[in-house]
Every structure is written in C-alpha cells, then in structure tokens.
Predict the 3D structure of the following.
Amino acid sequence: MPGPFETLCISEILVVILDGLQDDKKSLYHMSCCCRAFADPALDILWRSMHSFVPFTSLIPQSASFMTDARTSDHDLLKYRCNSLDDWKTFDKYATRVRSLRIGEYNNDSADVIENRNHYTRLTILRSQNEFHPFPKLRSLAYVLSGPIAPEAKPFPPSLRSLTLICRNTLDCDPIELALDRAVAEAPHLKELHIVGLMRTRQALHSTPQLQFGHIGSVDLSKAYIRAPELAALCTLFSQAPISDLKIHLQDRLNMNWQAIPPMFPALKQLDVRGSMFSVILFLSRLAATNLHTLVFQPDGQPSCVTTVYDYLMPILVERLGKSLKSFDLHVNEPRPHARESDSDLIKSILQGIKPLVEAGLQSMRLFLQVDSTMSVQFPPEVQSMLEPCAWPSLKQFYFVTKGVALD
C-alpha cells in the first residue's frame, strides 16, 4: 500500500487537491516550493487565472526594459531586434501557464490600469516579431478599450475563446466595430463575447461578413451602456452571426430606425433582456429566431398604463416565439406605491396573455413581482386562483413569488 506521500504523487489525486486550493494563493505557493513533484502542478493552478498584469512587469527581461519607457513609441518597438528566447525564459515559464487574464476593471479607471494595458499591448508588438504571442495558451481575456490599438499590436491571441471588452469611451478610443474586427481576425475561434461600459461607434453603418463571426455563440451586453447608434451597429454586425445565447440591456427612448435593422439573431435559443418595455417590444419585433426556447425579461420602470403595455407585449411574444418558447421568466421590478389593485390587474393581464404560449407548448413559467413591503400582499380570489400551480396543469413548472422592498 502506498504511503501518504506516494498517494499525493498520483497526478489525478494531486490535481483534485490543487483545484480545491485555487483561491488560496498562499498555500499553492508553499506547495510549489516544498518539492519538485508538486512544483509544476501547483504553479499551473497558481498562474492559471490572473486578475492583473502587474506580476508580469517584473518578469520582463532587462534587455527589453525600453518597452515600458513612455518615450518609446509603438512604431519604434519594431526597430528593435527581438531578444533571444533565453532572455524571455523566466517570463515564458509563467506566462505559458496563464489561461485567464484581466487587464483592468470597469470600475477602476486609475492611471495604473491604463499603464498596464499599454504594457500588455506593447509587449504583443515586441514578441510578435517572431510570431510568438506572450500568452500563447490564453483562453479568456478582459481588455480595456482606452485609446487606439496600434496596428502593430496583437492583443487577442489565436487561442482566445472568451473576450471581455471594457469600454472607456475616450475621444481617441477605437470604435467598437473596429475593435471587434480586430478581435475576430486575430482570434478566429472566439466563442464568447462580453462588452462592458459606454462604447463608441462609427457614424455610418457597415456590415461584417458572416464568416468572421462564425464561432461566436454567446454575447453578453447586459453591462454595456448602449445608445441608439451603438445598438444599430451591433445589431447589424451580429445580424447573421450564429449567436445562440444573448444577454442585453436596452436603454429607454432609443431614437433609431428599427426598420433599417435587418432581421437579426436567427440562431438565438436563449435571450435574457432587460430594459424599457417599449424598446424591448421593438427589439423583439426584429428577431429572426425560430428556435428560441428560453426568455428572461426584466422591464425597467413602469409605464403609466402598465396593463395596456403588457396587453401589447404578450401578442408579440405569441407571434414571434409561440412555436418555440419553452421557458419564460418575467421579473416585474420597480414596485408601484399603493398599487394593490393595479398589481392585481397586471398579474391578471400577464397570466391571461401567456395562455396562448401555454397552449403552444410553454413548459415553465416563473413570475417575480416586487411589492411595497409596508403593505400586505393580497389578491382577489379570481387572481389568487390563477396563481395556483393547479391552474396550469400542462406546465411542468409554475412559480410565482413576491419580493418586498421598502418605498420612500
């Protein structure tokens, strides 16, 4: 029977132990130093997910220190002969282990973040001379869009599968279309895209060939501030992309010509949409999806005549999604002060509206309603009976819950 130490040397067991320590950097460091058998596996976990570029600045060889000098331009970097691989041995020892890297955060716009972003970008210029990306096994990258990306830079490695673009909306920042063109050209196997913050766009719309977005299946725009020009640009860019999972937050009063937007997202299967009721209705009217089976909807605010709006929304859902929709989650936020009667009318309108969806094959309905916590939640018997699961025998799941919040 093997002893305790021999048991830990079994790679499958060691990997399980190290995975359990992935958030305990101190213990991983100690394990990497205790013996040679543990060193490489522990270092792999320790450097697998990096939340900052800072640790790598000290690993840049002295012979390449000019890279961090602000007086050295991006174009000047190409004039230098790339250092030998021996000079980069220490840097590569750790950089090749990285699978996830964050270059900045949305809520952190300090000068240090921009400096680290610039160091990372300039590093890709320097190492690209021998067609070698500094992080050759990188799968996930969070990258700050602040200022233009130099034409010589290669910030998006071919190995990339997930990209988060953190937009700063500076005057010299690249338009979102240009950044996306660069991303899909340099990382052709990109599967997941997240855009955060306030982006810029070109004045004139342009379409991108469908094949450039041939692998992107998931797009998250829930934390992006999207104005009408940006929404028009993104909808046009992604109109025929094979996106199956979309999260988006639509702003109110989007002054745009929706008829100019081509039918979009034909491959969509899951949609999580939040925003103005009117914007969402217009957005749904341009969907070309025929197999969308999951919808999560969180309307922002409440129009003055809320039941009338829901009366209009439900037929749109039946017309566009009735043949495919299987799961529908509706979150009614922004509670109405002293609105017990209107809440009853609202719920009644919603439940009557989903009947055609249920008849068409809806299997799961979950309704979340925020109410004033200072008032008791009571509904008329007619509405209360509609909220009982037994009222929906054909549904596999019916769920209704109220969430009390304090109103001023």
